[in-house]
Design goal:
The structure holds two protein chains of two kinds.
Chain A (H helix, E strand, L loop, with lengths): L4 E12 L2 E13 L4 E5 L6 H9 L6 E6 L2 E3 L8 E2 L11 H12 L6 H14 L15 H14 L4 E5 L7 H18 L2 E6 L2 H7 L2 E5 L7 E6 L8 H4 L3 H17 L7
Parallel strand pairs in A: 3-8, 3-9, 6-7, 7-8
Antiparallel strand pairs in A: 1-2, 1-4, 4-5, 9-10
Chain B lengths: L1 H13 L5 H10 L4 H37 L8 H13 L12 H32 L1 H14 L4 H12 L2 H26 L3 H10 L3 H39 L4 H10 L3 H29 L7
C-alpha cells in the first residue's frame, strides 16, 4: 500500500549562537488515508515542533515530509492546522474567520454564492452556524475551538493537523468536542494527525498512537495500534478490556519507561 | 387612519388599566407619558452631571479673570472686553476683504488644509515605514537609530531648511507638519507590527495569504490599536506645529493671524484665536479617537 503522508527520517536541530540543541532525531512515520494518528509525549519532547514541520511552518534540518509522494516544505491549505489556542482573528466575525481560508482556497473553483454556502456548511458541521455574526471575544473557549476546526475543515485539507486542540478547555467541554471530532472523522473520513498529552484522548480517538521519548533528541519510542471498532462510545469503552489494555500500554510507556525528567 | 387611533385613545382614557395590548400603540402616539418623561429626566440628569462641572469651573475662571484684569492699567483685557472687541470677528467669520484681511473661518480653514496635507502624507509614509521597520530586523537596525535622533529635532528647526529647499511658504509649512507628526506614527506602527502574535502569522501562512493580503487582512487590523495611538499623537503634534510655523511663513492661517494681531496690539483677537485653536485641536483629537474606536472594534479584546 502506498503511503499517503510520509515523514521521512526527520531531524531537527535548533541553533542559537554556539549552542545547538537536537530536538528531534530520525523520525519516520507513514500515515494512510483516512487514518487518525495521535502523537503523545511529555511536554518539551518536540511533538509540537514535529507538527509544525508537517505543517511547513518550521523547516526540518534533515529529512522531509511527503504528501501523496510529493515533498511539502512550506505551509499550505492542504495541511490545515487547528491551533491549540484557536488563533481566530479577533477583528473578524466567526463567519469571516472561516471565509478567509475558503476565499483563498476556492477563489477560482467556486462562485461567491458557493463559497458562502460552503462556509455555512462547515459552520453547520461544528454546530456553530447560529453564532456566525459573533466575534471571537463573544463566544466561549469551546465554541472558538469549534470555529477553528470549521476553518480548517473548510479548506478541504488532505491532512488535518490538530495541535493539542482540546488542551485549553475544561474537562466537560473537552469531552464534548472530542465526540464532535470523532463524529466528523467518521462522517468525512479525514486523515488526521493530532498532538496530545492526554492518554484517554489519544486512545479514544486514534487508530494508532505514536509515543515519543523524552527530548532532547526525541525519537519515536513505540507505535501502538488501537484495535477498537468505530463508532466508539465513551461510556462503553470505560470498561472495555481492549481500551483498558491500550491505555495501560501508553501509561506504562509514559510513566515507567520514559518518565518525565524535571530538569530536562 | 385617524379614526381607529382616536378610538383607541378613547378606550385608553375610559379604562386605562385594562387591555394593555390595545393601549400600547396609543402610548407611542401621545407625547406626555410617564415612562418616557422619566427616561428623558434620567438622560438630562446624566448629561447635566457631565456638562455642569466644567461649566461651573469655566464660569469661576472667567469671573476670576474678569476681576483680575478689570483694574485700569492691567496688561491683558478682561473677558468682557475681549467679547466687545471681537464681536465682529465672532459673528462674521466669513468676510473676505482680500489679502490677509479675512474672517477667522478662512484663516482656520487654511491652517486645517495645511494640516490635512501634511498629516495625510505623514500617515501614509509613517504607516509604510513603520511596517517596514516592524517587519524587517535589518530595516529596524538600519533605520531605528536614525529615527530616534531625527524625532528629537524641534519642528520649527526644520522650517528654515524646508524654506531653503522649497522656496515657498506653503510646501514648507506642509513639510513641517509632516516631519513633526510622522515619528510617533512610525514608532507606534513598528511596535504594533512587532507585537503581532505568531499565531496570526501561522494562520496567514496556512491560508497562504500573499504579502498584500497579509498586510491588509492581518497586519493592519492586528496593529490598528498601536497605529491609532501614533495617529492620535501625530494629529496633536501637527496642530501644535502649524501655529508656530504659520507665524513665521505669514499669509493666511491662524498662526499668522495671531502674530498679526500681536503686531497690531489687538490682544483680544489673540485670545479669541487661542480659544478657536484649542477647540479645533480638541475636535481633531476626538475625531481620530472616534475613527480608532470604529476601526479597532474587537481588536483590543481577546
Amino acid at each position: 500500500m502506498q503511503a499517503y503522508l510520509k515523514l521521512d527520517h526527520i531531524d531537527k536541530t535548533f541553533t542559537r549562537g554556539n549552542a545547538t540543541t537536537e530536538v528531534l532525531k530520525d523520525i519516520s512515520l507513514t500515515i494512510e488515508k483516512g487514518e487518525y494518528v495521535s502523537i503523545i509525549g511529555h511536554s518539551g519532547c518536540g511533538k509540537s515542533t514535529l507538527l509544525n514541520i508537517v505543517a511547513g511552518l518550521t523547516g526540518a534540518t534533515n529529512g522531509g515530509v511527503l504528501l501523496e509522494n510529493r515533498e511539502v516544505n512550506s505551509p499550505g491549505p492542504d495541511r490545515a492546522v487547528v491551533f491549540q489556542n484557536h488563533s481566530l482573528l479577533p477583528w473578524l466575525t466567526v463567519y469571516e474567520n472561516v471565509k478567509l481560508g475558503v476565499d483563498k482556497v476556492f477563489a477560482s473553483r467556486k462562485t461567491r454564492a458557493e463559497r458562502d454556502a460552503w462556509v455555512m456548511h462547515n459552520l453547520n458541521l461544528v454546530q456553530m452556524a447560529h453564532a456566525k455574526d459573533k466575534r471571537p471575544s463573544e463566544i466561549s473557549g469551546g465554541m472558538k475551538q469549534r470555529v477553528g476546526i470549521a476553518r480548517a475543515l473548510a479548506m478541504e485539507p488532505k491532512v488535518l493537523l490538530l495541535d493539542e486542540p482540546f488542551g485549553a478547555l475544561d474537562a466537560l467541554t473537552r469531552a464534548h468536542l472530542q465526540d464532535s471530532v470523532m463524529a466528523l472523522h467518521q462522517k468525512l473520513g479525514n486523515t488526521i494527525l493530532m498532538i496530545t498529552h492526554d492518554v484517554d484522548e489519544a486512545v479514544l480517538l486514534s487508530d494508532r498512537i505514536v509515543m515519543m521519548t523524552n527530548g532532547p533528541s526525541a525519537r519515536i519510542g513505540e507505535v501502538l495500534e488501537v484495535p477498537l471498532a468505530r463508532p466508539r462510545k465513551r461510556l462503553e469503552l470505560a470498561t472495555n478490556p481492549g481500551y483498558l489494555k491500550c491505555r495501560q500500554r501508553v501509561l506504562e510507556f509514559l510513566y515507567e519507561r520514559h518518565r518525565f525528567v524535571e530538569a530536562a | 387612519m385617524s379614526m381607529p387611533a382616536i378610538k383607541a385613545e378613547a378606550t385608553a382614557v375610559a379604562i386605562p388599566t385594562t387591555s394593555p395590548i390595545a393601549a400600547a400603540p396609543v402610548v407611542t402616539m401621545t407625547p406626555k407619558q410617564a415612562p418616557r418623561a422619566e427616561k428623558y429626566v434620567k438622560m438630562a440628569k446624566e448629561t447635566a452631571a457631565r456638562v455642569v462641572p466644567p461649566l461651573v469651573v469655566l464660569a469661576l475662571l472667567m469671573l476670576f479673570w474678569e476681576l483680575v484684569c478689570r483694574r485700569t492699567g492691567s496688561t491683558l483685557p478682561p473677558p468682557s472686553r475681549v467679547f466687545k472687541d471681537t464681536k465682529e470677528l465672532i459673528f462674521d467669520p466669513f468676510f473676505d476683504n482680500g489679502g490677509i484681511d479675512k474672517g477667522l473661518f478662512w484663516h482656520l480653514s487654511a491652517s486645517l488644509q495645511r494640516v490635512a496635507y501634511g498629516y495625510s502624507i505623514a500617515a501614509i509614509v509613517g504607516i509604510a515605514l513603520g511596517t517596514l521597520v516592524g517587519q524587517s530586523v535589518w530595516a529596524m537596525r538600519g533605520l531605528d537609530p536614525l529615527f530616534q535622533v531625527l524625532r528629537t529635532i524641534p519642528p520649527l528647526a526644520w522650517l528654515p531648511l524646508s524654506l531653503a529647499a522649497f522656496r515657498d511658504g506653503q510646501p514648507s509649512a506642509i513639510f513641517v507638519i509632516f516631519i513633526t507628526s510622522v515619528w510617533p506614527i512610525i514608532i507606534n506602527t513598528a511596535v504594533g507590527i512587532r507585537n503581532i502574535p505568531q499565531d496570526y502569522r501561522n494562520v496567514a501562512a496556512v491560508v497562504q495569504l500573499n504579502p498584500l493580503e497579509f498586510f491588509s487582512k492581518i497586519m493592519i487590523p492586528a496593529a490598528a490599536p498601536y497605529i491609532f495611538t501614533g495617529l492620535r499623537i501625530g494629529i496633536g503634534l501637527s496642530w501644535l506645529a502649524i501655529v508656530a510655523a504659520e507665524m513665521l511663513i505669514g499669509g493666511v492661517g491662524i498662526g499668522f493671524f495671531i502674530w498679526d494681531a500681536w503686531n497690531s496690539s489687538h490682544i483680544s483677537e489673540i485670545i479669541l484665536a487661542l480659544f478657536y485653536v484649542g477647540i479645533i485641536g480638541f475636535v481633531l483629537d476626538r475625531l481620530i479617537a472616534g475613527v480608532a474606536k470604529i476601526v479597532t472594534r474587537g481588536t483590543a479584546l481577546n
